[in-house]
Amino acid sequence: MPQTRVLIVDDSALARRMLSHVLGSDPSIEVVGAAPDPYVARDMIKTLNPDVVTLDVEMPRMDGLAFLEKIMTLHPMPVVMVSSLTQKGADVALRALEMGAVDYVAKPTIGIEDGLSAMSGEIVAKVKQAARAHVRPLSGQPTQQVRITGTFASSERLIAVGASTGGVETLQRFLIPFPPDAPAILITQHMPPVFTERFASRLNDLCAVTVTQAEDGERVLPGHVYIAPGARHLELARSGANYVCRLTDAALVSGHRPSVDVLFRSVARAAGANAVGIILTGMGNDGAAGLLEMRRAGASTVGQEEASCVIYGMPKAAFECGATEIEMPVERMPSHVLHCCQATVRRAIRV
Question: Where in the sequence is 4-aspartylphosphate found (predicted)?
Answer without folding.
Answer: 56
